[in-house]
Structures are given as structure tokens and as C-alpha cells.
Write a structure and sequence with these properties.
Layout lengths: L7 E5 L7 H5 L2 H11 L9 E3 L2 E5 L13 H11 L4 E5 L17 E5 L9 E7 L8 E3 L2 E6 L2 E6 L5 E5 L9 E2 L3 E5 L3 E6 L5 E6 L13 E2 L3 E5 L4 E6 L5 E6 L4 E7 L2 E6 L4 E5 L2 E4 L3 H4 L2 E6 L2 E5 L3 E6 L5 E6 L5 E5 L2 E5 L3 E6 L5 E6 L5 E9 L2 E12 L3 E11 L6 E9 L2 E7 L2 E6 L2 E6 L6
Parallel strand pairs: 4-5
Antiparallel strand pairs: 1-3, 2-3, 6-37, 7-8, 8-9, 9-10, 11-12, 12-13, 13-14, 15-16, 16-17, 17-18, 19-20, 20-21, 21-22, 23-24, 24-25, 25-26, 27-28, 28-29, 29-30, 31-32, 32-33, 33-34, 35-36, 36-37
Length: 448
């Protein structure tokens, strides 16, 4: 199946006089046409080089839904450039080959290359700005937020189910079967999961030095937030009524619910277990200042500045610790852990920390982030910043699909340009935010 890899409109260096007004007057129209179908990063001014003028989508996306746009774009270009020759090519050209078979001097080239991408495929796309984090996935619904408020999406269709525009939260919300809860920095807001109606909102009369720093954590009866002044606040899920649970010696930056209770991480790296008996500091944490990334089967997995480690849930005792650069993300893959550093994706044994395989991003400016496990494969995103002719800079994001057994890369899939804010697994699909749109991707390659 022919799939779109690149879309270029190429104008020869020596344009006949009768074409100059038509071509020069259409740059804005062409950019608007392309932007209507694709995320075009270089839309303000066309780029120039000594061989000619190129107006390009700069798309370079191997995406199975792109080819359907070509017919309409081709028809519009033929109408605009009636005195030139608009034609399609199914293979890549060099500049010297940019000539129309019918009229070598007057041409516009619509380049469509065959990259034979059949999987994965895009289930739906939604043009919507989001906060800089992966979405929350609960059952068959997806929840996210932007500076306009919180919104819910049907994971099957991509349709927006509801939007709550009176709660400008600063983090992606959390939720349970009945509620979606977020924080604005100075208040906590609970919404009905079914329709987005505000159930309660609890504000804190605190200064900017005592703002809410932690993401909300949800327990059986309460929601919890940590404040910059060290207080941990419990809020009734039914009413939002607050009470101070305990006080820590530094700003509370992270809260996590685990089986024994609530784990609190402070700005100085100390860890506390907070339960019905009060708070208990884990002594080992003072020496390693770990950042907990994942919990599973009685173990907490964390990273500090130089290592990856496993800690017992009940008392924070370090079970194993291995040398590792700064750990960004951790996800469980059966009895293994998949962790990312700035340029690496690494699979280790969850019981020992022994390295099984790793993937290293070749581009020195690339970052590897946010691994997920979906449909029997491991996926992550690499993001690289490119400068186009020293004028434009844009972020290129590539989704990589790996066989979890041996680390073989099964497929790569270009998510487009612009900021990418990570992946979330949704049943047998992936949901991500890239280039100002939410994308749901499914049908991944099957490991051998």
C-alpha cells in the first residue's frame, strides 16, 4: 500500500515570467492548504535554497491516515497552478530530477513515497492543546486538561464527552470510578466523572510559598495533597472537607498511595510512610534521596542521581541498587522493569536489577521518554530538536516499538512535529499528545 512520507511543492529556480505572479502570490495559500491537513511547522515564511524555492509540509510522517488527503490537495494545486504542471511521484527525487514529463520547465511536484507502513494505525486524532504530561486513562475513557479546564474523551471514537472550563488545573487530573480530581495550585476540585459537574472545590488561604506542589493522590475515603509548607492535607471524597494529616520538614512534592499507606516525598529527598499511626521517615532515604517511579508486588522502584534501586514497601529498606544514570520513567514488563534515562531505554530484571537489553538513541540531541507496555510490545518516544536552515527549530517525535524479549525494534512511527508529552496505554492502544493534537494508535507489530 502506498503511504505518504513527504509532501513537497517544488518550484524550479528559473520560473518563466508568466508564472511569477501566480506562484509568488500563492505561498500563503499553499501554507494554509497544507496546515489544514497536516501539522506544518514552517508555515510563516517559505524556505529558500540556491536550487529553488520549496514550500514543504516538513511532515516526514509515516502515518497510515495521510494518503487520503492527497487527492484533495492535488486538485486544489492544479486549480491554483493552471499554467504549470502538477503531478504526483511515487518515488523520491533529487533536485535534478524535479521535472514534469509533460512540461519540464513549468511544474509543481506532489511527491508521495512508498514507505509500506501498514501498522500501527491511527484510530483517531483530536486537535487539542494539553498540559505537558500523558493523559489519564480509566477504563474506556480518557481524561486530560489544558489551561482552559479538564475534558473527557471516549477512547473508542475520540469524541469529547464533556469539558469543564471553570477549573484551570496545573496538573493532569486523577480519578476513580466516580470522580475526577485536579488541583489549580491553590484549590482542589472534584468533578463528576459521568458529566464533569463540579461536586466540590476546596481552597486554601495560603501564600505563594505554601502552594500545592504535589499531584493529588486518591485513597478509599480521601484525596490527599502536599503543600509547599510541608503539610499533607486529607480531603473527604464526599464533601471536600480538609484536615491536616501531618507536617513534614520540607515541601511535599510527591504523594503515592501504596498498600501500607501514603508515601510522601519531600523536596530534600526524604521519604515518609504516612498511615493511621502517623508519619515514619525511612532512614535509608536520607542518604540516597530517591525519586519513586513505580510500585509493584511489595516493591518500590526508584532512581537517584546515580542509581536505580528497589525498596521494600513496608520500611523503605533497599533490596538492590545498581549504577544507572538519572532515571526518568519506570514501567513493569512481566518480571522485568523498563526504565529510561535521557538517551536510553533499558530492560532490567526486577528481582536483581541485572540489565537484560538496552536501546540507545543515536542522535545526541534526542531524549527518550515515557515507556509503556501495550499489546505485547514495549513502546517509547524519542524527541529530537532540529534546526531547519538555521531559521526554524522544531521537535520531531518518533514512536519506537520493541520486542520486550530481546529488545529488537519492530517498528518506528513518526508522531509529527511539535512538543510531545508522553504516552498512556489504553487497552491495546496508545494515546499520546504531540504537536497540538491527541492521537490514539493501535494495531502494533507482533513479536516473532
Amino acid at each position: 500500500m502506498e503511504e505518504l512520507l513527504q509532501l513537497h511543492i517544488v518550484i524550479p529556480e528559473e520560473v518563466p515570467d508568466n508564472l511569477h505572479p501566480e506562484i509568488n502570490g500563492r505561498f500563503d495559500d499553499v501554507h494554509e492548504l497544507l496546515e489544514g491537513h497536516f501539522p506544518v511547522p514552517n508555515k510563516d515564511v517559505p524556505s529558500y535554497d540556491h536550487l529553488g524555492t520549496t514550500v514543504s509540509s516538513s511532515l516526514f510522517e509515516r502515518r497510515s491516515d495521510n494518503l487520503k488527503h492527497i487527492d484533495g490537495i492535488e486538485a486544489q494545486l492544479k486549480d491554483w497552478y493552471a499554467k504549470a504542471s502538477v503531478f504526483r511521484s511515487s518515488y523520491e527525487h533529487s533536485f535534478g530530477e524535479f521535472r514534469s514529463p509533460a512540461d519540464p520547465d513549468n511544474h509543481i511536484l506532489l511527491l508521495v513515497t512508498n514507505c509500506e507502513i501498514e501498522e500501527p494505525t491511527i484510530r483517531w486524532k483530536l486537535k487539542k492543546e494539553t498540559l505537558q504530561a500523558p493523559p489519564l486513562v480509566l477504563d474506556d475513557e480518557i481524561f486530560h486538561a489544558n489551561h482552559g479546564g479538564i475534558f473527557a474523551i471516549d477512547s473508542a471514537s475520540g469524541d469529547v464527552l464533556w469539558e469543564a472550563d471553570d477549573c484551570q488545573v496545573v496538573q493532569v487530573p486523577v480519578g476513580n470510578e466516580n470522580q475526577i480530581i485536579g488541583n489549580t495550585g491553590h484549590e482542589v476540585i472534584a468533578l463528576s466523572r459521568a458529566g464533569g459537574e463540579v461536586q466540590w472545590r476546596t481552597g486554601f488561604e495560603i501564600s505563594d510559598d505554601e502552594i500545592i506542589d504535589s499531584r493529588v493522590a486518591i485513597g478509599a475515603d480521601n484525596a490527599y495533597v502536599g503543600l509547599r509548607n510541608g503539610e499533607i492535607i486529607a480531603l473527604s471524597l464526599d464533601t471536600g472537607d480538609p484536615r491536616t494529616l501531618c507536617e513534614c520538614e520540607d515541601s511535599v512534592v510527591r504523594l503515592q498511595m501504596i498498600e501500607p499507606g501514603l508515601i510522601a516525598t519531600t523536596n530534600n529527598g526524604a521519604l515518609y510512610l504516612v498511615d493511621s499511626s502517623g508519619k515514619t521517615e525511612w532512614p535509608d532515604s536520607a542518604n540516597i534521596a530517591p525519586s519513586i517511579k513505580h510500585s509493584q508486588d511489595g516493591c518500590l522502584y526508584a532512581g537517584d542521581s546515580e542509581s536505580l534501586l528497589a525498596m521494600a514497601e513496608e520500611d523503605g529498606t533497599v533490596k538492590w541498587q545498581v549504577d544507572f544514570p538519572v532515571v526518568n520513567d519506570i514501567v513493569q514488563v512481566g518480571d522485568k522493569l523498563c526504565a529510561t534515562t535521557r538517551r536510553d531505554l533499558v530492560l532490567v530484571d526486577a528481582k536483581t536489577g541485572e540489565r537484560v537489553w538496552d536501546y540507545h538513541a543515536a542522535n545526541e540531541f534526542a531524549t527518550v521518554s515515557n515507556p509503556v507496555v501495550v499489546d505485547g510490545v514495549v513502546a517509547c518516544v524519542t524527541s529530537s530538536t532540529f534546526v531547519d536552515e538555521e531559521i526554524y527549530s522544531f521537535e520531531q517525535n518518533i514512536l519506537h516499538i520493541f520486542d520486550p524479549t530481546d529488545g529488537t525494534e519492530l517498528q518506528s512511527f513518526e508522531l509529527g512535529v511539535g512538543d510531545c508529552y508522553g504516552l498512556s496505554a489504553e487497552n491495546e492502544s496508545i494515546v499520546c499528545s504531540a504537536g497540538g493534537e491527541l492521537i490514539c494508535i493501535e494495531n502494533f507489530p507482533t513479536p516473532a
